[in-house]
Amino acid sequence: MVKKSGGVMVFLLLFGCISPETKPPIGKTTGLRKVMISSSQEVERLRNFDLEIIVQEEKYVVVRQDSAQIKNLQNAGFTTLPIKGSDLVQRLVRVHFSSREQLQQIIDMGVDFWKQEGDSLTARAFDIHLSRMQAAGIGYRILARDASKWEGEK
Amino acid sequence: MTKVFPRRFYPLIFFPLLLAGRCRNGENPTPPDAGLYHTFSEVAVELHALASAHPELARVESIGRSVQGRDLWAIEISDNVAQNEAEPVAIFLGGHHAREWIAVDVPFLLAKHLLENYVSDAQISERVNAAEIWIVPLVNPDGHQYSVTTDRLWRKNRRDNGDGTFGVDLNRNYAYQWGGNGSSGDTFSEIYRGSAPFSEPETQALRDFLLAKKPRALITYHNFSQLILYPWGYTDDPVPDEAALHAQAVAMANQIRAVHGVSYTPEQGSDLYLASGETTDWLYSEIPQSRPYTIELRPRTISPGFQLPEGQIVPTFEENLPAALYLIEQAMAVEALASK
After folding, report:
1. Given A80, B55, B63, B191, which residue has the most CB atoms within 10 angstroms?
2. B122, B137, B204 from B111: Cα distances, Å
């Protein structure tokens, strides 16, 4: 059994290594960047730049910006960096909804639906989703600031 | 849980695969370990081992490659597997969403069970003899690998979106009603639908495979919530043969409950919320006689949610086995009726 599978393994080894990584689209100017912050005043200053804040942590925010906005931020003294996967922290939230339409509205905001129970749903959400919910008058409760560290219902 | 290869052979078998994985993704040099759950490498090795052990009944082929170049392995199980017979096709898919590990192990264990019990179980030999059964346990190998090595809750594939974010939700990337409710155009969202319908090599491969095979029955496994869902997902409108689909879903739920007393709820996909661009809607739109279902496996609740304890792998498979056999039998019955 092992001997027969050996040929397959060699095939996988040889051909598995030559597949190229996919390249991102060339010339794309909008992207997510990490902006370092040291105080809440700096977050308020950032808001003046009309940016979408995706994640807001204690020492940084992740914003969606184009290359012109990056330059403006750098001119204003902010340090911007490429993001890493671990920068994209999501909250675990319980969201209350009043109708099927409102449930759909929440889903369509782009949250990561986990479970519906009665008139509430549990989801993973970025801070931008929470801002969208606030703007729509939808109430929520944060169960965990970092959903990946949530240890289940106590 | 027993695996196909004796453990003493694992280093010999996995080393080349691990090397291949490393030079492909360059993400993490740590050998992936998902405990009793199967990793991509283990699925690949064990599917080939199954086919080698049952050459008259099974063969493995790659139906395409992922964004990072991993093969989408499919195993065909049928009598006279080398011959192209006119038999009804039943297809079982797993692992569209990376973090749903149980949704990989259930279809893998189905393949293993069908082959290892073909001789001793008349119910199985009857189906294997009369149908062409295809199982693709891991549709999203890159995402699954990333979930094993780096981020347990990763959902999407590993497409570089070019803006600092990664991943497309493969189950929002199918063409039918693509871009509608329940999907997102934000690249960072877990339900990012991709830049275009079938933008991803994984869904392209599945599209071509499914259109070529024209299945009479399909189950795509996910977790969690214990649901049996049928089209439509994108609208509350019923499909034309909603009554038949619902009746089959109820029958499957009854068969599941009979094993360990665990309840799965049969309902239209949209009963939960509207979601567009997903597998079963697309397949039904292309092949209305295909009878496609999404089964959301254990658990029912968010604790443990996606992280189903290893001790529940086998019971989850055991309870889903009769439903899978029932759907194959239904495909055979429909084919027999159609050929009269």
Report:
1. B191
2. 16, 9, 24
The answer to whether A85 touches B149, Cβ cutoff 8 Å, is no
Out of B16, B161, B274, closest to residue A12 by CB? B16
The predicted pLDDT at position B339 comes to: 77
Burial annotation A75-105 (CB, 10 A radius, 16+ → b, else e): eeebebeebeeebbbbbbbbbebeeeebbbb
CB atoms within 10 A of CB B63: 19
Asked if B182 and A83 come within 8 Å (Cβ–Cβ), the reply is no
Residue B24 · residue B16 · CB < 8 Å: no
Q: What is the DSSP string of A94-136?
A: EEE-SSHHHHHHHHHTT-EEEEEETTEEEEEE-HHHHHHHHHT
Query: pLDDT means per 10 residues in chain B (340 residues)?
Result: 52 48 49 92 98 98 98 97 94 98 98 98 98 98 98 98 97 98 98 98 98 98 98 98 98 98 98 97 96 98 96 98 98 84
Q: Shortest CA distance to B93 belongs to which of B234, B204, B222? A: B222
Domains in chain A, CATH or no CATH each? 32-87 (3.30.70), 89-149 (3.30.70.340)
State whether residue B110 is helix, strand or coil.
helix
Distance between A70 CA and the closest CA of chain B, angstroms: 13
Place of tokens 């209305």: B288
What domains appear along chain B, each with residue ranges and CATH number? 15-21+33-338 (3.40.630.10)
For A101-138, how does the pLDDT look when each residue is reduced to its tens digit (9 = 90+)? 999 999 999 999 999 999 999 999 999 999 999 999 99
Whether A88 and A55 have beta carbons less than 8 Å apart is answered as: yes
Contact predicate B178/B203, CB 8 Å:
no
**Nearest Cβ partner of B181 from A104, A113, A126?**
A104
Residue A56 bridge partners (DSSP): A61
What is the token pair recorded at A38?
Answer: 């040291």
- Give the tokens for residue B113: 């069970």
B71-77 vs B132-136, strand pairing mode? antiparallel
Question: On the CB side of A113, how many CA atoms lie within 13 Å of its CA?
Answer: 27
Q: Which two tokens stand for residue B22?
A: 């490393």
Q: Is B126 marked active-site?
A: no
What value of ipTM does the predicted structure carry? 0.89
- Asked if the peptide bond before residue A114 counts as cis, ω within 30 degrees of 0, the response is no
Q: Which of B273, B307, B308 to mutate to test the interface with A (most CBs of A within 10 A)?
A: B273
Nearest to A112 by CA among A97, A138, A93, A131: A93
